[in-house]
Design goal:
single chain, alpha+beta, Jelly Rolls, four-stranded antiparallel beta sheet, about 45% strand
Length: about 130
Amino acid sequence: MRMRWVCVLMLVMVGLVAAADRTERVQFAKGTTSSVVKGTIQGYDGVQYVVGANAGQTLTVRLKTSNGANLFNVWEPGKTPGKDEALFAGATGGNEAKIQLPTGGDYVVQVYLMRSVARRGTPVNYSLTIAVLP
């Protein structure tokens, strides 16, 4: 019986590690203020896009997706997804954000799937346009 609980615990831990977000830094081509990233997410995996910006600039994010359960959130520097409240929450704000930035630093744009789709393991394609304007 004890061995069974150890196996269950190990499976849960493997599932938590497998569901970790991957992180990518967004780079703008020289002379531009925006970048488009495309990807596919599946299950509970997500992607965290990190973009540097200054206080007073405007961050715009637009998500085009093949599934309405594919959303994004934005966190300000020093805030952590899963621990802190998002600066912008796609679940209530929709697929477009235009944010006057309160502080300078690295902002995190996290793309994820709502649980209803994530638990099915359905792959979802998306295109994310991120811009930082003066």
